[in-house]
């Protein structure tokens, strides 16, 4: 910038309209991008395993600001940030992972009041007053008979022993060792069975398996 | 003071990161607190409540507290708490010394030009249109703010939260920690920081030009009349000697021309209380007093009639 720009009477080129116009265009571009991001909602997202109080997917997505409080609030560390597979818009929202433990509504840690729900500052996780652990359906356990050790007649019954709701029964089919079956009416998707399933670690037989033999599946809304 | 600010914002970011790593439920700057006590990001609180059609007590309380804070301290959050300027420092660290110097000199010349222009202006201010405020009431940031709000209303969820750089910064900490502590491999460990870098490079001067949070604070900051920069005219080099100085304007982080506010990209409504101008003033003429009114008066500096024109072209004292 030369001295000429600063000559008497001449307005310095500092706020040259071109610069601010370009900035305005860029800002308008940002707005359009935000609208586009919002419109991704109609691309549809797969159903998720949500923490208690997050079963109303519409409400959770509307209120969650990705503050990450619930991840730390869960004493069992089963609430994890959703990944890209859950859909672009779900990324970083809370989902459940039953690798190490399961959800008992903080019965041991907080007398049956889920700590994630009380930690959520925007009430994205919210339980109606009459809600109970039994009736709040997180998902549904599904057994893969190809990888389940009990279906190889090993007599494995970890999931059966772990289920707090008696939602798994053992049946002997034609004189085989007992095999587990899910009683869907009783299963609320707490994840106790999945968290104890040893098929991946003990069942090197099923080398092609990428997940445990009993897995909680989200419930697809019709 | 500069170091103190890095310590405050960096320390807070580190503390909250430790909270994430230790698995405490302290949350992030988007939602900070324990148990029933919670301080929410004001913009997050607004968009979340609009989208969910809810009035959430913690959201309302946070909003009231934040508005009160902004009314007293303006955009101090941006200067003292927000981790985004820290990221800017880090990226600035990788700039070559040469490049940094060129940018600094450019800015210096620009500010001196403005100072010369105003100091050499012979006409009465009331008659001269060249220095008049031509600034629109709303700027590019408000366009982004509008887009974010519109998108939230149209699609029913807090859209901006997904790309908010503050949220992405804390998400990066969480994802990297989960990668090492839980062996949780996910493309997000790369994608989230990449998005952050993309935003920083594509949208340079994010804080002054695009940040909707800054736009939100600007709207409330307009009613702020405390702790704004005030120039003691009896000390200011430009006022006393008529020589261009404008050091205060050269160092401002918020793109404010402190000495000649009508020429800044932003006005004093956007002061982040970083105190850089106070420290840069060679004459000690600047302060941020409790009762500052509107701060530095808008309009040209008044100087004596008999200023030697030769000094106008000279560099300020001490260079």
Automatic annotation (TrEMBL), chain A:
Keyword DNA damage: no
Cofactor(s) for this UniProt protein: [4Fe-4S] cluster
Keyword field contains Hydrolase: no
Pfam families: Fer4_4 (PF12800), Fer4_7 (PF12838)
Protein name in UniProt: 4Fe-4S ferredoxin
Chain ranges of the 4Fe-4S ferredoxin-type domain: 55-84, 139-173, 178-208
Single GO term (MF): metal ion binding
PROSITE patterns for this protein: 4FE4S_FER_1, 4FE4S_FER_2, TAT
Keywords assigned: 4Fe-4S, Iron, Iron-sulfur, Metal-binding
Species per Swiss-Prot/TrEMBL record: Berryella intestinalis
